[in-house]
Q: What sequence folds into this?
């Protein structure tokens, strides 16, 4: 289960969602909503109401070096927006569930 959830995303936009009871996690790109829901409920001992997912394509990066132009690509990222049951929360900084 821990391989499905990679890490919580702590950004300004994600912190605004926490006020509504929603949390953002970076997840395995091959995981589906059912697997993500099961992993969140087992890991944090909370009840998940809904999950929305978004796949962000990797970008092509180019930089100029002494050896010439180097090209690379950033990896694909899948985000899961998790909405919890009313009154429940997750302490993202420490990873300990709080009610």
A:
């Amino acid at each position: 289960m821990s391989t499905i959830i990679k890490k919580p995303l702590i950004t300004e936009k994600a912190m605004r969602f926490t006020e509504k009871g929603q949390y953002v996690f970076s997840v395995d790109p091959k995981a589906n909503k059912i697997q993500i829901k099961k992993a969140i409920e087992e890991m944090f001992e909370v009840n998940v109401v809904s999950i929305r997912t978004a796949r962000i394509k990797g970008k092509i990066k180019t930089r100029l070096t002494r050896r010439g132009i180097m090209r690379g690509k950033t990896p694909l990222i899948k985000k899961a927006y998790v909405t919890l049951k009313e009154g429940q929360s997750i302490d993202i900084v420490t990873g300990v569930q709080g009610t």
Remarks:
- The domain at 5-98 is CATH 3.30.70.330 (Alpha-Beta Plaits).
